[in-house]
Amino acid sequence: MSFQKFLILYILSSSASSLDTGTKVSLWGKMADFSDDCDHWRLRPEVSIPALKEFTVCLHVQFKEEASSLWTAFMYRSVKGQWTELGLGGKHSHIVVWLFGEEWTTTSPVPLQADQWHYFCLTWSETTSVPTLYVDRKVVNLRAVWVAGETPLKSSSRAPISPNGSLTLGSSHFLWHGTVQALPIGRLMGRLSLFRLWGRERTAQEVTSQECTEGDLLRWEEGAWVSPTCTASPETSLPCAWSKYEVKLRFVIMRDDGAMSDLYKARDIAHCWLRDVLTPTIYLHKVSVSQQPRFDCLAHLNVIPSQDVAAVQRDVRRLLRKTYEKPGVLVIQADQSSIYTTPIGREITHTCTRTHTHTHTHTHTHTDTVHYLSFSILFSYFGVCIYVI
Questions:
Q1: Whose C-alpha in 26, 74, 151, 314 is 20 to 30 A from the C-alpha of 281?
Q2: What is the CB-side half-sphere exposure of residue 167 using CA atoms within 13 A?
Q3: Which residues contact 20 (CB under 8 A, 6 or more apart)?
Q4: Residues whose CB is less than 8 angstroms from the CB of residue 361 and which lie 6 or more positions away in sequence, other chains included
Q5: CA angle, 306 as apex, 303 and 311 as ends, to 5°?
Q6: What b/e sequence results for 172-189 when a residue is b if at least 16 CB atoms lie within 10 Å of its CB, and e otherwise?
Q7: pLDDT, tens only, 38-53
Q8: How far apart are alpha carbons 112 and 133 in whole angstroms?
């Protein structure tokens, strides 16, 4: 894989870092396979959803049989559990959206073929007041219907979505003394992947052309979900090719002379390191030196041509987790558990936020092209935000 990198790199001392580099495990390239032995996934209690005045939910679903009967892709209930706050499912070949206890259904049947991945996105905001549903990148018409036994407790024109509710994938549910209870009726017999949530109403252009980007409120990652009966399964029939990524990691610089690297030097070292390791792999010897400072790194890179997200995540992790050595000078070792690669939107903008008293230096380098074997690496922009307490 060739990485053409447009790097925007931030180096921060660990004492001043605001980057979240805790252990995360991506689920890109994996799916929830719902069957008789696996009836639902649910959101972990420690993962909370805030009150939302607008949102976008996107996911991929593959049915084991043609979707003509009852099924539920996901359901979100308020903490009081009195009504379905948000959900997506289907019945009688129609797709159903639940919002604030109201039911919306497609005005005509929507064919959903078996053994084929279907892409769903649901958007809403308090200004538009009605949900918009995309199926395989096309808007489908919805109409509100009355549901016996579930009177809406608030209109869809009134925000927000209630915070801290319960969320299940693959099944509807109710709350019993605060415990999530999955319902056996209307379960999804199929596979679900790439469930993501954004805290804004994405545009039609974003929904249709940026389906491989990660959510900003809820990501498709292992730490968000728990299932009492099943874990994620590998998925190879849903490639999602994308080019723009954000990489976060924590690393340590170990110098042979025993000196400590200041933040300005760390900037230059990290630049050379990323330039080198994201080209073909070079065998490096390991040198252990203790008591060195740690740094947090955030980089943006562009992969050309676009590659499957799961493959990029694996390759970046494989390349960055190896010990990097400049013989007789220094060794760089990344914290493997901190390496996390996220597919992001096309617009990349960052500013240096003042959270401590510090000096700020912003530098640019001229365009530099490096040719190595069959790989061409173009550094068209390189910026660094230095934080000094």
A1: 26
A2: 25
A3: 248
A4: 264, 384, 385, 386
A5: 80
A6: bbebeeeebebeeebbbb
A7: 889 999 999 999 999 9
A8: 15
